[in-house]
Amino acid sequence: EEDDFFTEEIFRQLFMTIDSLPEHCRKVCLLNLEGMDNQEIADELQVSLNTVKFHKKNAYKLLRDKLKDQFYLLFLI
Description:
Blueprint: H1 2-19, H2 23-33, H3 38-45, H4 49-67
């Protein structure tokens, strides 16, 4: 179905972009998408809470910058 195609394409582009992030940003972003909160991520990665917040902020800024031209796709689903 057409909706499934658009949804799959959006997720494919999102995860390709996440894969291109710097390692620490990528790890924090993926753990956040799995539903972990900042403290759980800090515990998992054995880093401080502030480090998680820093990498998370950078990850989402990079994602916004890289996906800005494709953001209109998100409104299709």
